[in-house]
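hey so i finally got around to running the thing on that chain from the lab meeting. sorry it took forever, my laptop kept dying and i had to restart like 3 times. anyway pasting the input first so we r on the same page abt which one it is
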Amino acid sequence: MDVTDYTVKQIILWHWHYPEEEKKANKKVKIDLLLPLRKWLDNFEINNSSLAHRICKLIPSQCPFARTIKVWGKTLLTIPPLCKINPVYDELMSLRFRALSYLAECGEDVSKYC
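ok and heres what got predicted. didnt touch it at all, straight out
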Protein backbone atom coordinates (compact mmCIF):
# COMPACT_ATOMS: atom_id res chain seq x y z
CA MET A 1 0.00 0.00 0.00
CA ASP A 2 1.52 3.30 -1.02
CA VAL A 3 1.07 6.69 0.64
CA THR A 4 -1.67 7.84 -1.74
CA ASP A 5 -3.84 4.79 -1.12
CA TYR A 6 -3.33 5.09 2.62
CA THR A 7 -4.25 8.80 2.60
CA VAL A 8 -7.37 8.25 0.50
CA LYS A 9 -8.41 5.40 2.77
CA GLN A 10 -7.95 7.55 5.88
CA ILE A 11 -9.95 10.44 4.39
CA ILE A 12 -12.81 8.14 3.41
CA LEU A 13 -12.85 6.40 6.79
CA TRP A 14 -12.67 9.71 8.66
CA HIS A 15 -15.62 11.03 6.67
CA TRP A 16 -17.53 7.82 7.29
CA HIS A 17 -16.85 7.74 11.04
CA TYR A 18 -17.05 11.48 11.81
CA PRO A 19 -19.54 13.17 9.42
CA GLU A 20 -20.74 15.62 12.10
CA GLU A 21 -17.18 16.90 12.57
CA GLU A 22 -17.03 17.80 8.90
CA LYS A 23 -20.37 19.60 9.12
CA LYS A 24 -19.15 21.61 12.10
CA ALA A 25 -15.97 22.53 10.26
CA ASN A 26 -17.93 23.77 7.23
CA LYS A 27 -20.25 26.05 9.21
CA LYS A 28 -19.34 29.72 9.17
CA VAL A 29 -19.95 31.93 12.15
CA LYS A 30 -22.44 34.67 11.30
CA ILE A 31 -22.40 37.73 13.50
CA ASP A 32 -25.55 39.84 13.53
CA LEU A 33 -24.71 43.27 14.92
CA LEU A 34 -28.33 44.42 14.70
CA LEU A 35 -29.74 41.53 16.73
CA PRO A 36 -30.08 43.58 19.97
CA LEU A 37 -31.99 46.30 18.08
CA ARG A 38 -34.22 43.71 16.42
CA LYS A 39 -35.01 42.07 19.74
CA TRP A 40 -35.71 45.45 21.34
CA LEU A 41 -38.13 46.38 18.55
CA ASP A 42 -39.85 42.99 18.73
CA ASN A 43 -40.26 43.22 22.52
CA PHE A 44 -41.30 46.89 22.59
CA GLU A 45 -44.66 47.17 24.37
CA ILE A 46 -47.25 49.72 23.38
CA ASN A 47 -49.17 50.65 26.50
CA ASN A 48 -50.82 53.99 25.75
CA SER A 49 -52.60 55.53 22.80
CA SER A 50 -50.36 58.60 22.48
CA LEU A 51 -47.33 56.35 21.96
CA ALA A 52 -49.27 54.27 19.43
CA HIS A 53 -50.29 57.44 17.53
CA ARG A 54 -46.68 58.64 17.52
CA ILE A 55 -45.43 55.30 16.16
CA CYS A 56 -48.07 55.29 13.41
CA LYS A 57 -47.08 58.81 12.39
CA LEU A 58 -43.33 58.11 12.39
CA ILE A 59 -43.36 54.79 10.53
CA PRO A 60 -44.94 55.15 7.07
CA SER A 61 -47.33 52.51 5.76
CA GLN A 62 -45.69 52.46 2.34
CA CYS A 63 -42.09 52.83 1.30
CA PRO A 64 -41.40 56.55 0.82
CA PHE A 65 -38.33 55.99 -1.35
CA ALA A 66 -39.98 54.70 -4.52
CA ARG A 67 -39.73 57.42 -7.14
CA THR A 68 -40.36 57.84 -10.85
CA ILE A 69 -38.38 60.63 -12.51
CA LYS A 70 -40.16 62.05 -15.53
CA VAL A 71 -39.14 64.77 -17.98
CA TRP A 72 -41.76 66.14 -20.40
CA GLY A 73 -44.06 63.25 -19.59
CA LYS A 74 -41.50 60.53 -20.35
CA THR A 75 -40.07 58.30 -17.65
CA LEU A 76 -36.31 58.66 -17.41
CA LEU A 77 -35.63 56.69 -14.29
CA THR A 78 -37.57 54.53 -11.89
CA ILE A 79 -36.13 54.07 -8.41
CA PRO A 80 -37.56 50.93 -6.81
CA PRO A 81 -38.65 50.87 -3.18
CA LEU A 82 -35.54 50.38 -1.10
CA CYS A 83 -37.26 49.46 2.16
CA LYS A 84 -36.39 45.79 1.90
CA ILE A 85 -32.72 46.79 2.00
CA ASN A 86 -33.33 48.21 5.48
CA PRO A 87 -32.13 45.49 7.89
CA VAL A 88 -34.86 46.22 10.48
CA TYR A 89 -37.71 46.76 7.99
CA ASP A 90 -39.73 43.72 9.12
CA GLU A 91 -39.40 44.66 12.79
CA LEU A 92 -40.54 48.24 12.09
CA MET A 93 -43.57 47.02 10.13
CA SER A 94 -44.41 44.65 12.97
CA LEU A 95 -44.15 47.50 15.49
CA ARG A 96 -46.42 49.70 13.35
CA PHE A 97 -48.94 46.86 13.05
CA ARG A 98 -48.95 46.36 16.82
CA ALA A 99 -49.53 50.10 17.29
CA LEU A 100 -52.45 50.04 14.83
CA SER A 101 -53.89 46.98 16.56
CA TYR A 102 -53.62 48.70 19.94
CA LEU A 103 -55.47 51.76 18.62
CA ALA A 104 -58.17 49.56 17.06
CA GLU A 105 -58.63 47.71 20.36
CA CYS A 106 -59.01 51.07 22.11
CA GLY A 107 -61.82 51.91 19.68
CA GLU A 108 -59.97 54.73 17.91
CA ASP A 109 -60.18 55.42 14.19
CA VAL A 110 -57.10 54.05 12.41
CA SER A 111 -58.21 54.83 8.84
CA LYS A 112 -56.04 57.97 8.72
CA TYR A 113 -52.92 55.80 9.13
CA CYS A 114 -53.74 53.34 6.32
